[in-house]
Design goal:
The complex is a heterotrimer of chains A (about 250), B (about 270) and C (about 300).
Chain A: E1 2-13, E2 16-27, E3 31-35, H1 42-50, E4 57-62, E5 65-66, E6 76-79, H2 94-100, H3 113-126, H4 142-154, E7 160-164, H5 172-189, E8 192-196, H6 200-206, E9 209-214, E10 216-222, H7 223-228, H8 230-245
Parallel strand pairs in A: 3-8, 3-9, 6-7, 7-8
Antiparallel strand pairs in A: 1-2, 1-4, 4-5, 9-10
Helix pairs in contact in A: 2-4
Chain B: H1 7-32, H2 38-55, H3 60-80, H4 86-108, H5 128-147, H6 149-157, H7 159-164, H8 169-210, H9 214-239, H10 243-267
Chain C: H1 2-14, E1 28-32, H2 35-44, E2 49-53, H3 68-76, E3 79-82, H4 90-97, E4 104-107, H5 142-159, H6 164-188, E5 196-199, H7 206-211, E6 215-218, H8 230-242, E7 247-251, H9 257-266, E8 269-273, H10 281-286, H11 290-304
Parallel strand pairs in C: 1-2, 1-3, 3-4, 5-6, 7-8
The chains are: A alpha/beta (about 250), B mainly alpha (about 270), C alpha/beta (about 300).
């Protein structure tokens, strides 16, 4: 099944054309690495997919449904690049923030208080943050905050997880643990993952497909295709190609 | 205490408690979204619109309420679209309000009741109808906050993620901003700008000193606010001080207590 | 003569003050600060004098701040009439900055001792300790008004000695009116059931009360902006109860909320008293004068104090 379908997407941001005629689709179980230079529109793209931004023109479908009619947002987990503006004094506890992820389930009948509590426990445990559950979000280190937000993103056991630069400014241990968790979800639970990253060196280790965007789709396909493409060599040179490809297990 | 037999004291207590509930809960949201001075800003706008109402010989409330609604929605739009930070947006709207009022006042050459008295109120002078109004308003505000509690927390924490969860952020933002405008306009004439502005900010800031969690913040803010009103009224009777100002000072007292508590905890 | 004068003053106040709509060009421009001075000056002067009022209708005298156009008016004026530094604190600084050498300044309160009051007051401050904050509404004692008219007349004569007789005649006529007013007050306020004037506004009527032998209590002090405390309100209510009053007085130009609260709580009716510091817009368009306002006050005083 196609999890994400994007057709002829055109998007503007602050009056500028950020995305031009983007077309691609993501199948169930894919692990997409979304890369591109700064300002290439990667974040804009995922914001369009998630409904945070509205496209200028084009079509977006999620789980086969047109995005404007899609309401099962509990099937989608999102980790933003950075919080819009985190007030260090923000009073919410880790528990409260993680529980926020369940909001999309709130109105669905049959979700009891116990199920709610269990889900929170599970998510906290999975990200190793049960011991800091009562701490205020502003009191945490960058790595801890990230784990809280990941917990929020996965608490619904979503079928699709979209992450925007999750590894930026993280300590290596947290980074490794996060990637390990994502790989586990993708390989064992068949969760579809789309990950925006600058870390082209290691993305090859995890992803099975590469989406290279620079206002348009420069490349979209498997790593096989990417690594053997002469076209790519012409564009980027052998060195770049090698950096990305050498980590990938064929 | 013999003062309790007076109707004006009873009304002050009742309406004070409900106004405190409204302002303390809205205040938590307002302070977190960096819109703390919106009470002040809207008061300045109200000043201008009262001038307009008096000049046009229309009952001021019919002008101040719509203009306050428009202004607060404008502030919201500015923070979203024009990327103006909340406090600057408030400043823009507020200065237009005051300037407009001053010009209108001097052009119209005078009014029947002094314009400035609309900015100052006295909680001891609240009427029965205004008390009932404050109860109704507080039921509405608390109802909205309870009903949309999780959505509001989500939006206040991170608006984009909230939108990505399918929450209708535009609608809820508008509702909150409208509630704030209505609260400020309706209560300003009754208890005055000083009291409203303080009640919107102080309890929230007090709560943030010691609360752990969003829900806890709302509760502590509400409790602090209500206690300040009740204690403030009684103290002002006992020591013969202006009631509104005493409430504000009592509130500040609670804030200092919370602040020192936090300092104490941090240093242990 | 008196009829012509009153007709003139009526038409004069029907236009905006100082609009100078006269056929003959005015020879003297007199700028006054408060309404009573405006009205007095209009009666002392004739149609060769243009009297203007600085305070726009509806504005509380204590809130007034002069605009550039006001300063310009003063630069062209021949006479400036004000009450005292206590009532118009902004007057001194304006006068200092003026470059008008021909301006004759009339301090209409000259020769009148303000603050010689032994009234009871509910305001917290003991008035005897602050002579500057003494009640400046001196014109509400008509013997003071007469003195003020005399001061104004003398000022006019200093400025325009050639028409001395006219000013003396006009002043005398108006003073006669004031005396008659005083007599009417004295007569009508004799034998009243109540002997205390209770005002839900500020301190202004102490002079009037004093003159006719009434006690006077007000909720606010001299400045109308101080906030009454719960104790202040309770004390007033006690007075109403103790004196078995059926009426409470309140003032123009001040938000009536406090007075309304008191009247509701005590079950008494509100009656308006006009301190005549300024006119409301409505009064202005109706062409009220100092005398007409004082007549209205008398009516309400008679009712409120339950006289004969």
């Amino acid at each position: 099944m196609k999890i994400i379908e994007v057709e002829n997407l055109r998007s503007r941001y602050n009056g500028l054309n950020v995305l031009d005629d983007i077309t691609f689709s993501v199948s169930e179980g894919d692990y997409i690495g979304l890369v591109g230079p700064n300002g290439s529109g990667k974040t804009t793209l995922i914001k369009n997919i998630l409904g945070i931004l509205r496209p200028e023109s084009g079509q977006i479908r999620l789980f086969g449904q047109d995005r404007s009619e899609f309401h099962a947002w509990y099937r989608v987990g999102y980790l933003p690049q950075r919080l819009s503006s985190l007030n260090p004094g923000f009073p919410s506890t880790v528990e409260e923030i993680v529980a926020l992820g369940l909001i999309s389930r709130k109105r669905r009948s049959g979700y009891s208080v116990d199920a709610y509590r269990d889900a929170v426990e599970k998510a906290l445990h999975m990200l190793n943050i049960s011991d800091i559950r009562k701490k205020k979000i502003g009191e945490l280190s960058g790595g801890q905050q990230q784990r809280v937000l990941i917990a929020r993103a996965i608490i619904n056991e979503p079928d699709l997880i979209i992450l925007d630069e999750p590894a930026a400014a993280l300590d290596p241990e947290t980074r490794e643990q996060s990637y390990a968790l994502l790989t586990h979800l993708n390989r064992q639970k068949n969760v579809t993952i789309m990950l925006v990253t600058h870390d082209i060196g290691s993305i090859g280790q995890y992803a099975n497909k590469l989406l290279l965007v620079d206002r348009r789709v420069v490349f979209y396909g498997s790593f096989d295709e990417f690594c053997s493409s002469i076209h790519i060599t012409d564009l980027f040179g052998t060195h770049s190609q090698h950096v990305i490809c050498h980590r990938h297990e064929f | 205490m013999e003062y309790l037999q007076y109707g004006f004291i009873q009304r002050a207590l009742i309406s004070g408690v409900f106004i405190a509930l409204i302002c303390s809960t809205l205040g938590v949201l307002i302070v977190l979204r960096r819109l703390s001075l919106i009470g002040d800003g809207l008061a300045h706008v109200t000043f201008g619109s009262v001038a307009l109402g008096l000049a046009l010989r229309i009952y001021p409330l019919y002008i101040t309420l719509p203009i306050a609604l428009v202004s607060s929605l404008a502030i919201l739009k500015m923070t979203e679209r024009a990327r103006v930070m909340g406090d600057a947006a408030i400043g823009v709207v507020s200065s237009i309000g005051i300037a407009g009022g001053v010009i209108l006042a001097s052009m119209a050459g005078g009014f029947n009741v002094d314009l400035f008295s609309y900015l100052f109120g006295n909680i001891l002078a609240i009427s029965r109808e205004e008390t009932i109004l404050s109860i109704i308003l507080s039921v509405i505000v608390l109802g909205v906050i309870l009903c949309y509690y999780h959505e509001i927390l989500s939006i206040t924490f991170d608006e984009e993620s909230a939108r990505a969860s399918g929450i209708k952020t535009d609608r809820i933002n508008k509702i909150l901003v409208i509630l704030t405008a209505v609260t400020v306009v309706l209560t300003m004439n009754v208890v005055g700008i000083m009291l409203i502005s303080a009640l919107l900010i102080l309890p929230a800031v007090t709560a943030f000193q010691i609360a752990r969690g969003f829900k806890s913040s709302l509760v502590i803010s509400a409790v602090t606010s209500v206690l300040s009103v009740i204690l403030g009224i009684f103290i002002s009777i006992a020591v013969n001080l202006p009631t509104g100002a005493t409430i504000v000072l009592t509130n500040f007292f609670f804030f200092m207590a919370a602040f020192l508590t936090r300092l104490g905890k941090d240093h242990l | 003569m008196i009829l012509t004068l009153s007709l003139l003053s009526l038409t004069g106040s029907a236009c905006s003050p100082g609009s100078g709509q006269k056929e003959k060009r005015p020879e003297i421009i007199a700028v006054t600060t408060l309404f009573p001075l405006y009205d007095f000056a209009k009666h002392v002067g004739d149609d060769r004098v243009e009297v203007t009022l600085l305070l726009p209708p509806g504005m509380e005298p204590h809130s007034f701040e002069p605009r550039p156009s006001d300063i310009m008016k003063l630069n062209r004026a021949g006479l400036f009439i004000y009450t005292s530094s206590a009532m118009e604190p902004w007057a001194d600084s304006i006068l200092k900055g003026l470059q008008n050498k021909d301006l004759v300044v009339i301090q209409s309160s000259r020769g009148i001792r303000a603050g010689t009051l032994s009234e009871e007051k509910e305001h917290r401050h003991d008035q005897s300790q602050h002579p500057e904050s003494a009640d400046p509404h001196i014109w509400l004692d008509f013997s003071n008004s007469i003195k003020m008219v005399e001061n104004i007349r003398d000022g006019f004569i200093t400025k325009d000695p050639g028409r001395k007789e006219i000013y003396e005649k006009n002043a005398a006529a108006y003073i006669a009116e004031l005396k008659k007013l005083d007599d009417r007050y004295r007569e009508n306020l004799r034998g009243c059931r109540k002997n205390i004037i209770l005002n839900g506004g500020h301190f202004a009527f102490a002079y009037m009360a004093n003159r006719y032998g009434f006690r006077y209590v007000s909720v606010y002090g001299v400045s109308p902006n101080a906030e009454p405390t719960a104790t202040d309100l309770a004390r007033i209510l006690k007075r109403i109860r103790d004196n078995d009053l059926r009426y409470l007085f309140h003032e123009e130009l001040i938000n009536p909320r406090v007075a309304e609260t008191l009247s509701r709580e005590a079950g008494v009716t509100l009656l308006k008293l006009d301190a005549a510091g300024n006119l409301t817009k409505d009064d202005f368009y109706r062409g009220e004068t100092f005398l007409s306002l004082m007549e209205k006050n008398l009516e309400n005083l008679k009712r409120g104090l339950q006289c004969r």
